[in-house]
Request: fold
Amino acid sequence: MDLQWMAWTTPTALFFIGIAIMLAGMTVWEVVSPTAEAKGFLPMRTTRGDRLFIGLLGSAFIHLGWLAATTVSLWGALAVSLVWTAFVIRFG
Reply:
């Protein structure tokens, strides 16, 4: 199987491994402790999985905005994204 066209780099692999670990962790957490919908600062009732998805979606937009607005390294966008996702999961 020739996968040379995919340009798998270490950061790309770590990104997808991180997403897979988050999804597996959320699945185990859901099986161990089923969630109930909750109302936080988001304008709708959400579950943990909903908040994870919203956090990841927001992180994608943070990274895109960072790329559009600055030439600074993406490590700053990663830090902002981690804070954003943790905030949404906890208080969303």
Summary: Helices lie at 10-32, 48-69, 75-91. The chain is about 65% helix and 0% strand. The chain has a mean pLDDT of 88. The radius of gyration is 16 Å.
